[in-house]
Amino acid sequence: MQIVTPRFGVLEIEENSLITFPDGLPGFDNCKRFKLLHEDVAEPKVLWMQSLDEPEVVISVIDANLLGLHYQLALSDAESALIQYTGGQDVILLLTLTRDGDGNKIQANTQSPIVLNAASRLALQKSGVRAEIVFTNE
């Protein structure tokens, strides 16, 4: 499938590489299908979720682990069913990123992570979550 985006131009996208939010995202209810994009580097830090339903919508995200954030989430039965999570599958937690009004600072939304079932490629955004911050000396 091909999509034309304002930010990335023409993209050729494989259907099986999409991430689907069955209920959409808060504030972007019509955006249900996304493609994760990243810079062409060995270990990209920031990813972009490009909407296929509204090509002008691009959301910057980062893996919570890269920020040293660890979550213990409890999904309701409805949430588990929504993303087809039955336990044992890999779940990736992504945080949305925004810039402040001046564009000088980037903030991560730590209280509403995106929960992505890597096996089913289905996701939801879970609100009101607390993260444990872990600092390590490496």
Automatic annotation (TrEMBL):
Q: Which UniProt keywords apply?
A: Bacterial flagellum biogenesis, Cell projection, Chaperone, Cilium, Cytoplasm, Flagellum, Translation regulation
Q: Return the protein name.
A: Flagellar assembly factor FliW
Record family assignment? Belongs to the FliW family.
Might you name a Gene Ontology BP term for this protein? bacterial-type flagellum assembly
Lineage runs: Bacteria, Pseudomonadati, Pseudomonadota, Betaproteobacteria, Neisseriales
Q: Does the keyword Chaperone apply?
A: yes
Question: Gene Ontology cellular component?
Answer: cytoplasm
- Signal peptide feature range: none
